[in-house]
From TrEMBL:
It comes from the Bacteria. GO terms for molecular function: transferase activity. The keyword Nucleotidyltransferase does not apply. This is N-acetyltransferase. Keywords: Transferase. It comes from Yersinia intermedia. Signal peptide: none annotated.
């Protein structure tokens, strides 16, 4: 670049000239000064005759529409920062640039140029519809990605969001994600060693999702699941698409990198691809939405050259689904080897949090399971609230209102109360209970009456009872997979729905036998001659009379004995207001899971792959999985529905002789079998606590999985 000779302006006032950036050798835009116009620059080491000398700048005035790049070293060498706001001595000192600037370049149109090391003192806005221009409403590029990578520390305090859409707030290393208006935020606690936070917004024509990554320098620490935040009319011309960043801290906020891209894949495709290809390690994804993370952290992927060729392919001209980089097109950094992980290769990793279930996290998935449809189909057709006897419509509405009215107490949120309420509505046009929400009660009464007129009371009770069993099963999943679970059913309804995934494409079955850990003298001991045996029974393949009958008889006997054990276990938590203990949570979750499994074994209605884990000939754990019908290629997608373990090992975890490891053996056995059958992804869904550090592995009580 050619640098023009600049004349001094000793009395410059920032408001007078709005087309130039002016440099001052004192704070508050005082003292000697000089001004630079668009595409002008100066290297002070070569300009001894200037009023402003090398390493003497203490404030800079920057009018709207202009920006300045300041360099600490001469000849325009790093470190450097891009400024879009006027800056004084204190903030320059915070950047270690007060009286340290050796060269400066000035330009306008900061949105096109400021893609790295951007400084925010108060606010920065990105009019996305203008930046993406013709790609904003381009149907061939429906998914827009916006990556913002921030330098962070313990005092960082800033907000990022759209005026009519989600807001992300970081303060005191606590990341709060606000979705729909009125919803409680999701709160995550960042790792104390993280010094960089990278946010990716996925913007579709009608929906928004985000994910984020914590890192220290170029070393990835944690990567969040994809968080779906709901529907927003992004393609509406009236929608305010200004992405705004507000810095609430006293020190400057540094955006290390800004990348914006438009791709052919929508958010769901991005999420599903990441599950298939990356074994849950989204930072190593081959997809445009997350390949740009590679630009931030060098990816640290364990796929090496194979991954690198696929990442670069997404941005190459030979890719028909090419992702178009809007704001900058930097070269992607080749990944470095990832540090070896000690985690279990069969761990299910949290890959998605769904916050757009309208506070029906227990009942919408239950309806989808019972009616054999998808949650997306229910959400797409259930509003407005018209009278409709389609299974997924009336079942979802009845379960939602019943849980709203009775879900504050496990004493009332039961199958017996549900049946009693249905009979009361049928005979007396009332629920028979004094309830605090007359509007919800009226909705429930009217809905049930309309269904009973069509189906009859017996069939209505039968169908709702079956669907309610699935809702109770979802609550059991919440209890067992959230170590501090305290929410009532109505509280769990308002939590996000977490999806945990295991990519079978990269799964490796362990070479060593499944270890059995036994509690002996308060110590967990592994015996080399003691191991688990795993049996598989797939009801989708032709029957093998002798083998299959023996499997079912043994499974029924085990589940029946466990049911008797739970029935005899003392309980008081259903009728008290005392906080639940770990025993209470484990008891309730085990009771519901075991009853659901036993009921299915007694009268099979669906096709399952059953896994039975034996120890010295006795079944100690049973797991059941089935096809995930929410996918068109359901034969490649399975999810875990039931799991039960001998309650002697669950309810009495500190007793001598208690066993651990059966759940892991079951999961490994299932993963290997499904992999051999060509299945791509195994999933598990459970309501997830909203306040937690980013979960990486699905946790089970007592290390069962």
């Amino acid at each position: 670049m050619k640098h023009n000779h600049l004349s001094p302006n000793n009395r410059y006032i920032p408001q007078i000239n709005n087309t130039k950036v002016c440099l001052y050798n004192e704070d508050d835009f005082q003292g000697e000064s000089m001004c630079l116009s668009h595409e002008q620059g100066i290297d002070f080491i070569d300009q001894d005759d200037e009023v402003i000398r090398n390493d003497s700048i203490s404030s800079i005035s920057i009018p709207n529409g202009m920006f300045a790049t300041i360099y600490k070293n001469d000849s325009y060498n790093m470190p450097y920062f891009n400024l879009t706001e006027s800056i004084g001595q204190r903030d320059l000192a915070a950047l270690d640039m007060d009286n340290q600037i050796s060269s400066v370049i000035v330009a306008n149109s900061p949105l096109k140029v400021c893609s790295e090391r951007c400084i925010i003192l108060k606010r920065m806005q990105f009019p996305l519809s203008e930046i993406f221009a013709s790609y904003w409403n381009n149907i061939n590029h429906p998914n827009k990605q916006v990556l913002l990578s921030f330098d962070i520390n313990n005092t960082s305090d800033f907000m990022v969001g759209l005026p009519q859409a989600p807001v992300i707030w970081l303060s005191s290393r606590e990341l709060s994600i606000f979705g729909q208006v009125g919803d409680e935020p999701l709160v995550f606690h960042l790792h104390p060693n993280a010094n960089r936070l990278s946010l990716t917004f996925h913007l579709n024509s009608n929906s928004i999702a985000i994910d984020y990554m914590e890192s220290r320098g170029t070393e990835q620490i944690a990567l969040s699941p994809t968080i779906e935040l709901g529907t927003f009319p992004l393609n509406n011309s009236q929608f305010d698409a200004r992405l705004t960043i507000n810095n609430n801290a006293s020190q400057p906020l540094i955006i290390d990198k800004i990348v914006m891209a438009a791709s052919t894949e929508d958010i769901q495709s991005v999420h599903h691809r990441s599950e298939r290809d990356t074994a849950g390690t989204l930072g190593c994804a081959f997809i445009p939405a997350l390949a740009i993370y590679n630009y931030v952290t060098r990816s640290h992927c364990n796929q090496g050259d194979t991954l690198w060729s696929k990442v670069t392919h997404w941005f190459s001209d030979d890719n028909k689904d090419k992702s178009v980089v809007i704001t900058t097109k930097p070269p992607l950094l080749e990944p470095q080897p990832q540090r070896p992980e000690n985690s279990d290769s069969a761990g299910l990793t949290l890959t998605k949090l769904d916050t757009q279930l309208h506070n029906q996290t227990l009942t919408l998935p239950a309806t989808a399971q019972f009616c054999k449809t998808s949650i997306d189909n229910i959400l797409a057709t259930r509003y407005p609230r018209d009278i409709d006897l389609s299974c997924h419509l009336w079942v979802s509405r009845v379960l939602a209102d019943f849980t709203l009215l009775f879900g504050d107490s496990l004493r009332d949120w039961t199958l017996d109360v549900l049946r009693r309420v249905l009979m009361q509505i049928h005979t007396n046009d009332t629920t028979g209970y004094a309830l605090s929400d007359p509007a919800a009660e009226s909705r429930l009464v009217n809905e049930v009456q309309s269904v009973v007129r069509q189906l009859g009371i017996d069939e209505t009770i039968n169908q709702l009872s079956h669907a309610f069993d699935y809702a109770r099963l979802n609550y059991a999943r919440y209890l067992v997979h959230n170590p501090t679970a305290t929410a009532t059913p109505s509280g769990a309804q308002r939590l996000p729905l977490g999806t945990y995934s295991l990519s079978l494409a990269s799964y490796h079955y362990p070479t060593d036998p499944h270890a059995v850990r036994v509690l002996e003298n308060d110590q967990w001991v592994t015996h080399p001659d003691l191991y688990f045996d795993v049996d598989i029974f797939d009801t989708t393949i032709p029957i093998r009379p002798d083998i299959d009958a023996a499997f079912m008889d043994a499974a029924l006997a085990a589940a029946g004995a466990w049911t008797d054990f739970y029935n005899e276990a003392p309980i008081s938590y259903h009728i008290t207001n005392e906080p639940w203990s770990e025993y209470d949570r484990t008891n309730e979750a085990g009771r519901i899971n075991n009853l659901a499994l036993y009921t299915e074994l007694l009268s099979p209605e669906n096709d399952y792959v059953y896994v039975a884990v034996r120890l010295q000939g006795d079944i100690v754990s049973i797991l059941a999985a089935r096809r995930d019908e929410t996918f068109a290629n359901s034969h490649e997608n399975y999810y875990i529905e039931f799991f039960a373990t001998d309650p002697n090992y669950v309810l009495l975890p500190e007793d001598e002789g208690t066993v651990r490891g059966a759940g892991s053996a079951a999961l490994h056995g299932l993963a290997r079998y499904l992999q051999q059958q060509g299945v791509k992804v195994l999933r598990f869904r459970a309501p997830s606590q909203s306040a937690a550090r980013v979960a990486t592995k699905l946790s089970f009580q007592h290390d069962e999985f």
